[in-house]
Structure formats: C-alpha cells, structure tokens
C-alpha cells in the first residue's frame, strides 16, 4: 500500500489523541418507513442501512449510486461507462444495456418507482434520508424487487419555519486533462400560510472531461478503419453538464389531512461514454471460444487455437455478426495490440486515444410529478394515496473498441413514461399493526439500441438498429400483519398478488446513418442481411404472480432484537430486444421471451444497542433462486436467460460514537453466490458451467472515522473513510480477462463549522491514492481484439462552502 493513506490515518490518530472532544455526533437516530410506517432503524426487523441527509453530506454523497460504498452487500453495475449505473445488492444485478429491462433492485424517490434503469443514477440534493433494504421487498413495495431496493426521500415543506441553504463546491481531477468541476446547490422552504407551505431546491454541476484523449495517436491510418468518423472526433471524455430541480408544495386543509405535491426535472449533457480499451485475445478449442485472456505483449494472432494456428477468421463465438477476423486481417496490426494495432498508452491511467469521442454527444432528461395524500381516519387508521408520473428520455453513445480504429459505436436511447398509483390503509391496535392496499403500474417504454458504423468506417455509414416497444400494466393487492404473540415475541405475515400484462414488439435490422448524433432514422433497409431482414417479432403475456413473507421477531430486552424468516420474491418475465448479432446467434425469435424469476430467501439477523451511542447489526441469509434472470453477453451483444442460482452470505455493521465528537462506522459483507448451468453461448456443444454472478464482489469492507472538536470560531472536523472490494467479473462467462481487480478506495476531508452552525467550509480529497476501481466492462475480444473498461473517478481535490439560513 502507498504511504499516503498511512500518513493520513496517522495524522487522524494524532488528532484524536490530542484534542478535547466536546462536539456532537453525526450518528443521529434515523427514523425510517421501510414497513410503510415510521419506526426507529433499530426497531425494523429487516437488513437495512439508512443515512440522513446530513450524514450523506458528511460522506460526500453527490450521486444516488455513491451510497453503495457505505452499505454492506451493496455494489454497482450497469453499462455505458458509468453513465448508466445501477445497484447490485447481495450479488443480484442486471447489466443489460437496453432500457426495456427493469432492474431486479428497485429504486424509489419519494415512494415513486423509477421504472427505467437509466433513472437510477441521479443527483442527490436536499435529501432527508436514504433507506437501503436488502432481500426481497415484494410484500410492501409495489414493484417486486427480488434483490432489494433503495429509497431516497427528499426534504418536504414544513409548517414550522422558513429555512434554506446555498452550497457551492469546486474541484479538480488529477489527470493530464486538468479537468475542473463546479457545483451549485440551493434550497429554500417557506411557510406561505397556516395551510400552505412550499420548498424549492436545485443542483447544477459542470464538469470537464477527465479522460485525456490523444487521438489520432496509435491509429494505423493505412489500415481499414483508420479514418476519422467526423468533425469533433477525439474529444476528452468524462464531461458532465447537469441541472436538476424540485418544487414542492404542502397543503394542510385540516388537522387530519395533508397533501404533498412535488414536481421534478433533471437534464444532463454528457460526452461519449468514457470507456478505455485493454487488448484481449480469445482461446479457441475445436472452433469454440473457451476463454479470453489479456493479450501477451508479443502476440500477433487474432485468436489462439489450442490445436495450433489462428482461429480468428472463423465464426468462433456464434454471435452471428462481425466475428473476430471478419475484416480480412491475417493478424493483429501490432504485437500485443487489438485487431487494429492499438494498445492503450498508459494502461488503466486516464490517457487514451479514441476516434468516436465527442463532447456533449449524449443527453438524459427526466421529469415528473408526485402527489401524496394522507388522511387520519381515526381509531388508529390512516389512509394514504401516492400518485406518481415520470417521463424519461435519453440517448447515449460509446466507442465499441475505445480506440482510434473507426469500427463501430454503440448507442442506447429511450423514450418512456411511467404511472404508478398506490392506495393503502395502515392501522394498529394494542397487539397488532397492519397495512393493506392496491398498487397499479403502467410503463410505456420505447427504446432505440444498436451499433453505429460511422462515416469512413469499415462498413458504414449504417445503423445496425433495434427498435422496441414494451407496454406494461401491473395490478396488485397486498397486505402485511404484525401480531404480538407476547410482550417479547411477534409474528409477521405478508402477501402480494400481482397481475402482470405485457405487450411487446421489436424490429431488428439496418438503417442509414445520417450523423454521429442521431440513430435509427427513417425506415429499415430491406433485405440488408439476406431476404429475411429486417426481423420483426411481437407477443403479449398475461401472468399471475405472488410474493409472500413469514417471520418471527423476538425482543428479549430493549437493547436486542432477533428475527428470522422466509421471503418469497418474484420478478415478472419479459422480453429481450437483442442486437442483430445476438438475435441471430441466440436462435432468433426463440431467444426473445424469458420467464419470471422466483427467489426463496431465508434470513436471520439481530439488532443490538451496545450502549446509548453504539449499535451493532448483523444478518445471515441463504438465497435459493429458480429461473434467475441472468444477462449472457456473447460476442457483441447479449440476452437475458433463465438459470437457477443460490447464494449464502452474512453482513455486519457497527456504528458508534464512543466519545463526544468521535464517530466510527465499520461494516463488512461476505457471500458466496453461484449461477448454475450457464452455456458458453446458445447452441454450444460444450457442457454448461456454474459461474459467479457479475458485479458481485464476495467480500466488501468499509471503515470511517470522523472527529470533531471546538475552536474559537466554531468547530473543526477531520474525516477519513476507506472501502475495500474483492475482485469480480463483468461477464457471466467468467473468462479470465473479464474481471476487475480488488481495490481499496480512500477519501479524506477537513471541515469547519461556525459557532452558530450557519457557515460550513470543507476541503476534501476523493480517491486519495488514485486507485483504479473498475466500474463496468464488456468483453469484445472477438470483435475488436479488446475489452472496453471504465473506472471510477480519478483522484480529485475539492473545496466547498455552505451557508444555512
């Protein structure tokens, strides 16, 4: 390990030793609504991690997915080099890059379900708290997330006083691109009358590209694919220009009724996804791709045939389109490079050379309205209605080979809306708590996906496009009952019955490519791939599904809660919208439908208050999956398939303020998950294998120390956090090259707060040791002789100042 983190923590230890601690702890009691009623975190018999908005600010949380680093058993997955990032919980994930796929870990904002995977990544601002629930949550939450869910709740208007804040931050990334970042966040809430209150909040982020582009360095211009795709090519990547705002009103027409109405809008402009290339080579046995490894420095073959020779000119992986060596090459154009002779100049550092790299090429837009009505009916019964509407639009691009060869780009677009409506009744008596209700969801999702062959490319200009339309209607009735068997023992029973209806149609074929910034324009080109193309498919399904829960909770003392139970989770089946190669290579229409997944989750845990300021929580679990929905990526695309799986694991989390001013967070998680009988490809003659799930590090650990002490002008606080992640695969086939190494991430922060608590200033270094922590990757060894990989942000230096009022 480098000396820098050791010095940082040595200084932190010295500060702890010499200062007199009199400041308040940030580890305040967190109230959560994980069971659709307000409870203390320690009273909820669920494996749950929760943080208040103040705690998230202290942890440096700025994006929704940042919270994963501080939640045991939670990681990130997704695609588009981090521009589309999703949550992975206890190894349950979904990294298909088409947005008609719903993630198995649901994300909610103010009880509104985010139906499109892209929307799981959003700016965090003016947030009251976040709740991360592990395991199936289908009984009480309207979308049956088999893996778990993340629920962000924003600050609401209040009727007590007027208040707000302004927070300004600046940062600089430590790369050759010398990229800067500026953020402005503000919120203000006002009491307009005794019956009306309002709150407005916004966040603006302007970030330069931190991935320095040296294009056309490394381009073999005499070779096919060595010509620029157009004006503006070769831009630095990692830029972001985001504005997000929220306007909320609260109406209190009577003492027993409250109506909350909030409107939100977010828009982002980003460059091409910041992937980088690493050279890889396939290993072929009897014409079958059996492994992918990092390319040896002196290797010139397209692929390695175990029988001798070069297997690269054959259709070796069944993807059905543009196989390795399909460009007429006899060998790689440079030893150790990709097919086009390119090798990243500094490996996993943030300098590269890519032709299809444009500033402000992609965009995302999300807007919505949420209406929540709560009325106290008396006798311990409360009626709640939550209505939520959202509109999602995006178009994002990546360079497939992430190098200077003008080969192919990938694009992902969506135009979708979602509507949810929940009605529920909560009630309680002396020995019972209950909730029951009705939930409706409609998703109208139109997606554009495909491969772009730009101008001057090997086969362009063409869009090898997929246009899909999925209409989903889901209706469910649900209920849960908590019954006190005795003063210390209680039982929980819950159930949800779902009616799921889907209508799907898809077209797969070729379009003319009109520019580098538009996709799937006009009509399909007829007979572009034989007489059968373009290919069309449509189908409808109607299924009845159910989820259930049974659990016992025992509280032998006020400071200890023990629980054990079984959960049945379910996620509805759906349809693939595969790229052309995946469609042809996976059996055509036979690869489009896939079934529902069912999870039986057995879990036990404890919540213990060791002292007034120290709590220790833990859980153990066993997952038994039937027809787990796994994303199998082969060649240049993938499909979701059903496969059985199991998982056994445990989690521990300690939060403590052992003395005034000192906060300690320690957490760890471990699991051993297996996805069973996964084929190398559709139709492979080789036997299927048991594999690890993707984006599923078996061991994760997190530690945080924060110490605050008074000075004459207020207080100072010094903080350091460290997180460790085990290695993990990003391709379900578990080939050797398709793996990110383990990593250790370090952050440090020094902050000052004025005596009156109205001013705060911070100095922070994120990713202190400039660690290369993998985010997302794709195996393209048979398409470009490379894998595309992306990493978390490089080291950055940040300052901020905040004024509360």
From TrEMBL:
Residues 41-148 form the TonB-dependent receptor plug domain. Residues 1-23 form the signal peptide. The keyword Cell membrane does not apply. Keywords: Cell outer membrane, Ion transport, Iron, Iron transport, Membrane, Receptor, Signal, TonB box, Transmembrane, Transmembrane beta strand, Transport. Residues 320-768 form the TonB-dependent receptor-like beta-barrel domain. InterPro entries: Beta-barrel_TonB (IPR000531), Beta-barrel_TonB_sf (IPR036942), Plug_dom (IPR012910), TonB-dep_rcpt-like (IPR039426). Gene3D superfamilies: TonB-dependent receptor, beta-barrel domain (2.40.170.20). It is a multi-pass membrane protein. It is found in: Cell outer membrane. PANTHER family: FERRICHROME IRON RECEPTOR-RELATED (PTHR32552), TONB-DEPENDENT OUTER MEMBRANE RECEPTOR (PTHR32552:SF81). Belongs to the TonB-dependent receptor family. This is TonB-dependent receptor. It comes from SAR92 clade bacterium H455.
